Amino acid sequence: MSTNSTETANHSTVREFVFLGLTNSWEIQLLLFVFSSMLYVASMMGNSLIMFTVIYDHHLHSPMYFLLANLSFIDLGVSSVTSPKMIYDLFRKRKVITFSGCITQIFFIHVIGGVEMVLLIAMAFDRYVAICKPLHYLTIMNPRMCIFFFVTAWMVGFIHSMTQLVFVINLPFCGPNELDSFYCDLPRLIKLACTDTYRLELMVTANSGFISIGSFIILLISYVVIILTVQKHSSGSSSKALSTLSAHIMVVVLFFGPLIFFYAWPSPSIHLDKFLGIFDAVLTPFLNPLIYTFRNQEMKLARREHADS
Q1: Cα torsion angle, 103, 108, 114, 120, sign
Q2: pLDDT tens across 141-171, in order?
Q3: Which one, 106, 136, 162, 253, has the greatest CB density within 10 A?
Q4: Is the peptide bond before 176 cis (omega within 30 degrees of 0)?
């Protein structure tokens, strides 16, 4: 009886986790603070601008821009899940997060990741239909199909996140409680558990790593098919299609690159892991609106019209 109570007490000793952060150099911290703050504000403004432009400009009320507005909404979430705390913690000596705060952060990271994965696949499908079956585009990509993609994305994100958290939330944590990172995520958190987590680590790799790789391969194949179809035509519309496709491909690479490294790489480098973490949390949500705005003629035209008005 006393042994059980002692184990329970040990398992409940960890109430918070301590982030080791990005660096101990004051100069680099100052540079990161300025860099991250500017990109965070810019990404919030850029993605909000895309959302409101799509909502209020009736020329952009099409399936492609419906999906783009949803992607911008998700990028607002990507920016906000880890960046504000990272920026706040840069000059704090003791960077801590409560156990519940850590679990909440992991939950939203994986919900948002799952939603964005499905949205990128939906956008690839949208481009495939628009380029390969243009006469049937409005029939296939009807409002019902758009709502289906929207609901499916959120369902996949929620299920993807919960299937991992249901195993992690009851793990015993009895110390140490230091995470060599600036945010909570499954691979590093699991390693702190006071039990054998080999099977759980395999499950996380299968759930997040293989799904990321599989989705990335599917997207690459679909874009190759689309590009081959576009190259058969030598009209001005094909060059416009290639310009739009290049924007999609850049966003896909920016999204899946860090994901595959985090969850499918056997022994990640701590320094590269942190660099990609900053890239994924701060830079990618900033680059996405830039890529779509400057590579898309309709978005540029709509932005100019709103600026003039």
Answers
A1: negative
A2: 999 999 999 999 999 999 999 988 888 888 8
A3: 106
A4: yes
Q: What are 43-55's pLDDT values in tens digits?
A: 999 999 899 988 9
Q: Which amino acid is at 296?
A: N
Q: Which tokens hold the place of 68? A: 């783009």
Closest CA to 289 of 52, 37, 35: 52
Task: Read off the pLDDT of residues 194-225 as tens digits, 9 standing for 90 and up.
Answer: 888 888 888 888 788 888 888 899 998 988 88
Taking Cα atoms as reference points, which of 125, 110, 305 lies closest to residue 226? 125
Contact assessment for residue 254 and residue 285, using Cβ atoms and an 8 Å cutoff: no
Whole-angstrom Cα distance, residue 47 to residue 282?
Answer: 13
Tokens of 162: 């919960």
Total-model pTM:
0.86
Angle at 77 between CA 76 and CA 81, to 5 degrees: 125
Which is it for strands 16-19 and 178-179: parallel, antiparallel or unpaired? parallel
CA angle 252/257/263 to nearest 5° reads: 125
